[in-house]
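Support case: user asked for a sample of complex input and structure output to validate their parser. Sending the pair below.
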Amino acid sequence: MNNFLFDQQHIWHPYNRLPARQPALAASSTQGCTITLDDGRQLLDAMSSWWSAIHGYNHPTIIAAASEQLQKMPHIMFGGFSHQPATELAQALIDISPPSLTHTFFADSGSIAVEVALKMALQYWKSIGQPRKSRFIALQHAYHGDTFGAMSVCDPVDGMHHLFADNLMPNLFAKAPPICHHPSEPLDNQACLASLAQILEQHHHEIAAFIFEPIVQGAGGMRFYSADYLKEAAALCRHYDVLLIADEIATGLGRTGKLFACEWADIEPDILTLGKGLSAGMISLAAVLCNERIRAGISQAAPGLLMHGPTFMANPLACRIAHASVKLLNDYDWQTAVTQLQHIFSQAWQGLAHPDIVGIRCLGGVAVIELNRDDLAGLIQEFALEEGVWLRPFGKLVYSMPAYTMTATEAQQIAQVMASAVMKALIAADKQDTALKQQRPFV
Ligand SMILES: *Cc1c(COP(=O)(O)O)cnc(C)c1O
């Protein structure tokens, strides 16, 4: 059997049926922002492999660090051992993150980092003698991952996990802040702050933490929201003694134009999760940072242990890669690069208009066209592929989160192809709608 027919019949792909309706593209190599397929076609990558390959693919500095580590020590158990890749990475993360975050836990993926963050918050309250504080507040439209704890803080209605609603922790959801175009845009956040305040007022004695994606809600809708909301929401949580968990798996390490999106609102969470771009799109790694309050709380009561320890915790190869990637961020002007991406996309889309385009927003390395219909994602992806661009729109959202190192020419090409693919799909859909109307018999 052809390899790719085998794939289609036997291997699950993300959020997909088996067998898949369409075979996956056969990728054979990557370089910079280009993906080469088995048949020789080259695609310009608008997705940076789910927002993770922040310096582009096969960056020579990272490849060199990885190769050296691979020869020396690809893995060693973290129980009883430590190693330079882990200590150097932890030090680097503590140095660049908000100053109060001084301790690190390494996990294997974003979802697991969220599990550990939730666990830290629960264990903190148990340790300090307040075991009733055992629920979480999240925002509507939130996305925090696919494992059970993470699913329980994803949007219960719009999220991807309503199938499991009966199996999840009964958490609480506050109204999401309104979408804005820039975190500093003045917006009326009163209604959603009131929603959070009401939940806190009623339930604070049973709430461990408020978990949120700072400034950009990613997979739950690519929604940008205002720094003022975040600032006031954080103050409300502080007032009711509810911990703050910032999930920066998508936003962290420069994606929104700040190193951490929390900086937009000038807040310091108790716990912060990192993933995706952490290991530069090369290997799976995530991290949870926490402050001294959390560490001391967890350590204060017996058993005092943080009860988590994955087999591949702090994998040296992954840590070495992540450390090389974080060092690279210090070596080039990522902030100018990301700001330039924002300008290129927003300029390219200035004249873009159609009644079905309901939102266009660009912040740092995130560029989004939002439609009011969710049936065109496949068609738009196909049109973009014909033009040599890899997009993976979901539902109503056509977006790009490219590598920071993408050239201006490449970014312009992606922006143009996205705009033309969206317009072609909308025009095709309009024609079809008209044809359907005309076919309808008069009655
Ligand atoms: C992607 C994502 C996760 C989950 O990370 P995985 O590595 O896919 O498990 C969690 N939170 C946010 C905000 C994310 O964007």
